[in-house]
Design a protein that fits this description.
The complex is a heterodimer of chains A (about 350) and B (about 375). Chain A is an alpha/beta fold and about 350 residues long. Chain A has an eight-stranded mixed beta sheet with strand order 1-4-3-2-5-6-8-7, with helices on both faces. In chain A, α2 runs antiparallel to α4 and α5 packs parallel to α6. Chain A has 13 helices and eight strands. By secondary structure, chain B is an alpha/beta fold. Chain B has two domains: about 170 residues, Glycogen Phosphorylase B (Rossmann fold, 3-Layer(aba) Sandwich); about 180 residues, 3-Layer(aba) Sandwich (Rossmann fold). Helices cover about 45% and strands about 15% of the residues of chain B. Classes of the chains: A alpha/beta (about 350), B alpha/beta (about 375).
Chain lengths: ~350, ~375
């Protein structure tokens, strides 16, 4: 799931705000950004299925401009171009080291040798041609750098992303009755719930009278859930993105409550702390942070060995969460045990 | 005896360029002109009607005209630049590489090289023939001096009769919602995903039982798989049918039993499905990209934007208004006549004959002593 995709799922049943049919006219380069967020999100779900992305192409295109004969007149013959596997050399978990130590070095060396030869052979190279070469070289490095960033953001040694593993959906329905209590103190501010989990909890939050923002990185889950609620009324909105990315996009102290479930179980320890810190930041004074945490024994029992072994994280024990929340300066952290299900609630307030 | 010979990288059946090439060869032969098809790569399905292009050098006759059917990259292009015979470029549009880049960089590179080849070949051609004004503009921009527009020659007029069994089976289907049809190779520039997204919106808004049939060969397999995955992710895989490798008669049955052709392609050099829909009395809702607007004219709903909500609304509005639907179908018939598809073949033959006549005159002219052809650019 592309974490950059942040799109509010507005009401698809609302009429389009675009104009009526134009017969005999041509498209005017309609940018996708002009579309409402829900439509953009729908289309971006397809973009995520593209296997190669455009970085590879952009890099390749820059290199093609460097090496293709005939594109720039007056180049010396005989340069074989860059190594064919240059792009592949960046495909490593130590991407930055490899790129800095290998790919860019090769790029720089080969270009230097090429330009030296051009000079020594007395070629008349115009300023425009040199500028074109320089642009192409800079583009190549720029796209390589972007590739490094992307690799570093998605290091996955096994090659199986957590999103591809078959995980049970968490069922927060047991806590629907308590939901109104979590939001009561700051009912003037919206509540964020991520991920979506069971509809009953969402219904209870909406029923408590606060505005709800449902966040989940799985587009299909969002669209299925959205269909069950009256979106567009200002009571509930949906966002397709990673929960931590959504929280990062929010202003400080702008939400009355954050309810986290699912993501807090499977994320690795660092990401768990990111989630809590971001949630802590966005909850206003007097508001609540609620963690719905799967029981460790039930978690282990519900997963096969492959998923259990490959997931970056597993649920923390509620006592551990209490210690973390306390350490983060939240008030009155408490552990609410489930009466029938497997989901513990760990609740704390942001001090007044 | 001199001839007008056709060069195409590979001759496929059920392929727009392939069918156009075979139709043109048949028309030339029927007109008494010697015409052979030369290819770079052999397709077993058409091996009996093609020859390797490098064999042409042995078979060349003074006064020959060589017609290159250009839609992709081929070593043939640079080879043709070096031939002394007059070359005509019959241009079918090159899909810009950016469409393929996220799916298949190899194809993207292939298309980028094709564009380079066109820039080398076009200035040396004695004539460029675009199948649309859109293509003609690209030909001129690539350096072709003399450019005319003649549409594709392989549209069957009158249309092929629908296949009886297929027609009966399609009419016997259980679902009773609006039936959308999208026709075109499963290639990224065709943007079938936009039709799927619009169908998704239609089903959650106005038409819960709407269905979509996508007819097209999976020319880019990763894209084709992504389309199926997308439909599944949206929970509408049961409402989206993918069909490929069907006969013209089966395709006609699809046109006949659908309610609307939805074409949201991002790049079209002509758009044969548009005229096929008109021929079969199917209304068209299309995104006005490339040559689509000049082909459809006023005979369809042309969209200047294709957000899924907009497309779903346009289709729903059209299908809810039988009067408008019928008016568009009638306009389609008028449009077909205006496009001149029925005379495209003869126009093409006449244009090529004119080139051949000039070449023959030049070949027999003791002063000129050979065909008149622009010189290749000095840099090449």
């Amino acid at each position: 799931m592309n974490a950059k995709v942040v799109a509010v799922m507005a009401d698809l049943t609302e009429p389009s705000d675009q104009s009526g049919p134009r017969q005999g006219s041509g498209p005017d380069g309609e940018p996708r950004t002009a579309l409402p967020a829900d439509e953009r999100s729908l289309l971006e779900a397809f973009d995520r299925l593209r296997p190669q992305g455009t970085l590879d192409w952009n890099f390749d295109d820059a290199v093609r401009r460097l090496v293709e004969p005939g594109e720039v007149a007056g180049r010396p013959a005989g340069w074989s171009g860059l190594p064919a596997d240059l792009w592949q050399r960046g495909r490593s978990t130590k991407a930055s080291e490899r790129v800095l130590g290998d790919v860019v070095k090769v790029l720089a060396q080969d270009l230097s040798e090429y330009t030296d030869r051009a000079v020594s052979e007395g070629h008349q190279v115009s300023a425009n041609e040199l500028a074109e070469l320089r642009r192409a070289a800079l583009d190549a490095v720029r796209f390589l750098a972007a590739r490094v960033e992307r690799l570093e953001s998605a290091v996955d040694r096994v090659g199986i992303r957590a999103g591809q593993l078959d995980l049970p959906d968490f069922d927060g329905s047991e806590w629907s009755g308590a939901a109104a209590g979590w939001t009561a103190a700051r009912a003037d501010l919206p509540v964020v719930t991520g991920e979506l989990g069971d509809d009953a909890l969402l219904s209870a939050l909406v029923g408590s009278g606060v505005r709800v923002e449902g966040v989940d990185p799985r587009g299909a889950v969002v669209w299925a859930t959205e269909a069950k609620f009256e979106v567009g009324t200002g009571r509930i909105d949906f966002v397709v993105t990673e929960v931590v990315d959504y929280l990062r996009s929010l202003p400080d102290a702008s939400r009355g409550c954050v309810v986290l479930g699912g993501c807090v179980d499977r994320a690795d320890l660092a990401r768990k702390m990111d989630l809590v810190d971001e949630a802590r930041r966005v909850v206003a004074r007097g508001g609540s942070l609620v963690l719905l945490v799967t029981d460790q024994v039930a978690w282990d029992a519900s997963l096969g060995p492959v998923v259990r072994d490959l997931l970056p994280g597993r649920p923390l024990h509620p006592e551990t969460w209490l210690a973390v929340l306390d350490h983060r300066g939240l008030s009155n952290p408490r552990w609410l045990r489930p009466s029938t299900g497997v989901l513990h609630a760990v609740v704390a307030e942001v001090g007044r | 005896m001199s001839g007008i010979h056709l060069f195409v990288p590979m001759l496929h059946v059920r392929d727009a360029v392939g069918e156009h090439t075979r139709t043109l060869r048949d028309l030339l032969v029927a007109d008494g002109v010697e015409s052979r098809i030369y290819t770079e790569t052999l397709d077993p399905d058409t091996a009996d009607v093609t020859r390797p292009y490098l064999d042409y050098a042995e078979e060349a006759e003074p006064g020959d005209v060589l017609v290159y059917q250009m839609a992709t990259r081929s070593d043939m292009a640079d080879w043709l630049v070096g031939r002394p015979e007059p070359v005509v470029v019959n241009y079918h549009s090159l899909t810009p590489p950016e469409f393929f880049a996220p799916w298949n960089n190899w194809i993207a590179r292939h298309q980028a090289r094709a564009a380079s080849e066109l820039r080398r070949l076009a200035p040396t051609a004695v004539l460029g023939i675009g199948v649309s004004q859109f293509d003609a503009v690209e030909l001129r921009a690539s350096g072709c001096i003399d450019v005319i527009v003649i549409p594709v020659a392989n549209v069957r007029i009158p249309p092929v009769e629908p296949e009886g069994a297929a027609l009966a089976a399609l009419r016997g289907r259980q679902e009773n919602g609006p039936r959308w049809l999208s026709v075109g190779r499963l290639a990224p520039n065709k943007s079938h995903q936009d039709v799927i997204a619009a169908l998704f919106v239609a089903r959650v808004t106005t038409s819960p039982s709407a269905t979509l049939t996508i007819v097209g060969s999976p020319s880019e397999p990763t894209y084709a798989r992504a389309l199926q995955r997308y439909a599944a992710d949206l929970g509408i895989s049961g409402a989206v049918e993918f069909v490929s490798r069907i006969s013209d008669a089966e395709l006609a049955a699809r046109y006949t039993t659908s309610d609307v052709l939805v074409m949201l392609s991002e790049h079209e050099g002509f758009g044969v499905p548009l005229v096929e829909a008109m021929l079969n009395g199917l209304p068209v809702v299309a995104y006005a990209a490339g040559a689509v607007a000049e082909v459809v004219g006023d005979a369809g709903v042309l969209l200047d934007a294709k957000g899924p909500r907009r497309v779903a609304a346009e289709v729903a509005a059209l299908l809810a208004d039988p009067e408008r639907r019928n008016a568009l179908v009638m306009a389609g018939r008028t449009r077909l006549a205006a496009l001149g598809l029925d005379r495209a073949g003869s126009d093409l033959v006449a244009a090529l004959r004119r080139v051949a006549d000039r070449a023959s005159d030049a070949a027999g002219d003791p002063v000129l002593g050979g065909p008149v052809r622009p010189a290749a650019p000095l840099s090449h």
